[in-house]
Amino acid sequence: MKIMSTIPAATLRAAAPRRSPRALLRAVADAAVSPLSLDDLLDHFHPLRGGTGVGRVRGRIVEVRPETADAATVVIQPGRDWAGHLPGQYVRVGIEVDGVRLWRCYSLTHGPRRDGRISITVKAIPGGVVSNHLVRRAAAGQMVHLAQPEGEFVLDPAHRKLLLITGGSGITPVIGMLRNLYSKAAPDDRYDVVLVHSALTHDDVIFGAELRAHAAAGRLRLVERHTDTDGLLTTADLEAAVPDLDERLAYACGPAGLLDTLEAFYADRRLDLFTERFRPALLDADAAGGTLTFERDGRQVEAAGSTPILDAAEEAGVLMPSGCRMGICMGCVLPMTKGTVRDLRTGELTVAVPGETDAGGVPIQTCVSAAAGPCHLDH
User: What is the pLDDT of residue 51?
Assistant: First the structure.
């Protein structure tokens, strides 16, 4: 039986949601290119366009410029949604390596640029999949994915006397600070900057020529140390080189051992120190590890009690989600359905027991968690 509506047609038309001409055109375009969407086509022909949504920023590599034998600066043209950064901040970069998108964090190393381009400077590390790709294989034209900049390692403009302590690639956030500082500082508004930088050899100093030029021009005092001839930088070396360090606001970035030593030194003297770490401070652990079982394919990996699950899995060839590798962004989180892990920052244990904990598993951060016995991961 056909049921007739008693509501007037005009009322029905008025109640129906109205679509703007733009929305109608968009719907027609999406239908015309189905099963793709208009966004798919626009991404292909105009990948740096704006309006693609929060966190969805594309970039195009325009130059890869060698800095040392194992470091290079990668210059990137970001899409229109790039929000800009403060000198000293870092950016999460996603790049396709052998068909797999991997994410890593790198400090932004450029100063103000009229062309709107950004730069990161990467040091290739042994076994580093992304760092070696960017230094040795990336080329102009390659597309990358960018998160918006993050980080609190930025200068306090109220302080004029600064001490910058860096080791190795720890110079990368600091060079961004210096490039920005010297692009803006007027001749009568000079900062008093001491930079203490340690590298393995003279030729391994990233931005060495630029730093020495700043020192020669009187913009900063450079204390340059080379481990092959001077040994590791110690706090006694620092006190001898910078006798007025108590009067200077200090910033440090570099290897974990250097930062651990500096943090203890500054804490004892009750002085402020701002640090930037490429990896979180992890506890020394002699605890036994365990077997990681990845439930989707049944693959098993042996992991030491002092090694982050993320590192152990990647070393065994397992493709893992990752992000900052610092325990901050939550990009590496996976559900553990059974087992125990140890937080390498605090020593805290997290346990998943089938039938007692959540049926979907307990979320763990694989970049800062180590196996404390057999563990099953839903991955």
Answer: 56
Exposed, middle or buried by CB within 10 Å (0-12, 13-18, 19+), for 198?
buried
Report the b/e string of 320-335 with b at 16+ CB within 10 A: bbbbbbbbebebbebb
- Answer yes or no: are the C-beta atoms of 367 and 322 closer than 8 Å: yes
Residue 168 belongs to domain spanning: 161-276
End of a domain among 276, 298, 324? 276
Amino acid identity, residue 25? L
- Between β-strands 249-253 and 161-167, what pairing exists: parallel, antiparallel or unpaired? parallel
Please give the structure tokens belonging to residue 327.
């325990």
Q: Omega before 35 cis (within 30°)?
A: yes
What average pLDDT does this structure show over 76-90?
Answer: 94
> Which residue type does 91 have?
V
Q: Tell me the residue ranges of DSSP E strands in 235-348.
A: 249-253, 273-276, 290-294, 299-303, 333-343
279 alpha-carbon distance from chain centroid: 10
Reported pTM: 0.74
Domain assignment present for residue 156? The answer is no
Give the amino acid at 375: C
Range with the lowest mean pLDDT among 182-196, 199-213, 357-371? Answer: 182-196
pLDDT digits (tens, 9 = 90+) for 272-312: 999 998 877 776 666 789 999 999 888 999 999 988 999 88
Q: Are residues 43 and 71 in the same domain?
A: no
Kindly state whether residues 112 and 207 are assigned to the same domain. no
And the tokens for 184?
A: 């803006």
| DSSP3 helix / strand / coil % (the chain, rounded to 5) | 25, 30, 45
CA dihedral 243, 247, 253, 256 (to 10 degrees): 70
Among the candidates 78, 112, 146, a domain finishes at: 146
The C-alpha angle with vertex 334 and arms to 361 and 301, in degrees rounded to 5, equals 100
Residue 223: CB atoms within 10 A of its CB come to 19
Would you tell me how many other CB atoms lie within 10 Å of the CB of residue 306? 15
CB-based contacts of 179, cutoff 8 Å, min separation 6:
87, 109, 110, 111, 112
Question: Which pLDDT score, from 0 to 100, does residue 271 have?
Answer: 96
Distance CA 46, CA 117 (A): 17
Please give the mean pLDDT across all residues of the chain: 85
* Residue reference for tokens 């027609």: 28
300 plus 369 within the same structural domain? yes
